[in-house]
Design goal:
four-stranded mixed sheet, about 25% strand, 7 strands, Immunoglobulin-like, alpha/beta, three-stranded mixed sheet, elongated
């Protein structure tokens, strides 16, 4: 076997391994705080190992998790007007809000791994009437997406 034949064989074997690998590359999803007291992406569908970054494009906002599969594993609320990022390692639904604007419905959902096992806990979070209405809309959107 010539050197070139060996190199081509190794190249094609590596190519097959890469092409058939089940590993995926983790993604980073960016969500902005908007001037309309909303998040630019209200429902994000991600996979385990992905990261979400919240970007302060508008002042007066932060991120505070209200429910998730393991609240103890989630960070405390973010600092107002500062970027914030979280690597999601557990499947499930995560509900978050902007602390000063949750009563007017500035909420977001992150669905990790298309896993809705903790949706009952999400529905049980105490919110204002507006917040509950927004949450119902977000859940409907999450289930359809």
């Amino acid at each position: 076997m010539t050197v070139i034949t060996r190199m081509l064989t190794v190249f094609f074997v590596l190519l097959i391994i890469i092409a058939t690998s089940k590993e995926t590359i983790a993604e980073v999803i960016q969500i902005e705080f908007t001037q309309f007291d909303t998040y630019s992406i209200e429902v994000a569908h991600i996979e385990v190992g992905d990261t979400v970054e919240w970007l302060p494009r508008s002042k007066g906002h932060n991120v505070e998790f209200l429910a998730g599969p393991d609240m103890a594993a989630l960070p405390a609320k973010s600092i107002m007007n500062e970027a914030h990022s979280i690597l999601f390692e557990q499947p499930g639904v995560y509900l978050y809000s902007c602390t000063p604007h949750s009563n007017i419905g500035m909420l977001g959902l992150i669905v990790v791994g298309r896993d809705f096992h903790n949706l009952e806990n999400i529905n049980g979070v105490e919110l204002s009437k507006v917040g509950k209405s927004v949450l119902r809309k977000l859940i409907k959107k999450a289930k359809s997406g």
